[in-house]
Amino acid sequence: MPKYLNLWEIDNSKMPVDLNERAGLQMKQLEMIKKMIAEKQISDWGLFAGGGAGYAIAEGTASDMLKRTLPFGPFVKFKIQPVLSPDEVIQVMKSMSG
């Protein structure tokens, strides 16, 4: 199953200015993330220590990644990168050697 590194960043221009509204929205987002982890839709998630950005690791298809990120818009921007395991890289390297 393909694996993806999802780098995310909060778009502060879309976030509520009121601190209570912002906290409420972020709590809803965190509950969605906890549910995704419990349902094994994502295997790891973290917030960078500076705040406002972080990462998630997930397996699935590109369509799965889109489906999982859409509920966070327009408040969060994503950069999603497919990643290869060491075994997948070795397989590619072996296929290139004659």
Concise overview:
The protein has three helices and four strands. With 98 residues, the chain is of the alpha+beta class. The model has no long low-confidence stretch (mean pLDDT 95).
Descriptive report:
The protein has one domain: Alpha-Beta Plaits (2-Layer Sandwich), CATH 3.30.70. The protein contains 3 helices and 4 strands. The chain has a 4-stranded antiparallel beta sheet, with helices on one face. A hairpin with a 5-residue loop joins strand 2 and strand 3. The radius of gyration is 16 Å and the shape is elongated. The model has no long low-confidence stretch (mean pLDDT 95).
Which terms summarize this structure?
3 helices; 98 residues; alpha+beta
Structural class: alpha+beta
By DSSP (H or I, 4+ residues per run), the number of helices equals: 3
Low-confidence stretches: none
The helical percent reads: 25-40%
Determine the CATH topology: Alpha-Beta Plaits
| Rounded mean pLDDT score | 95
Distance between the ends:
28 Å
Number of strands: 4
> From the 3D coordinates, which CATH architecture would you assign?
2-Layer Sandwich
Strand content: 25-35%
Helix/strand order: EHEEHEH
Tell me, briefly, the overall form.
elongated
* Spatial sequence of strands, sheet with the most strands: 2-3-1-4
CATH superfamily: Dimeric alpha+beta barrel
CATH class: Alpha Beta
User: What is the radius of gyration?
Assistant: 16 Å
- Biggest sheet, open or closed, and with what strands and sense? 4 strands, antiparallel
Count of folded domains: 1
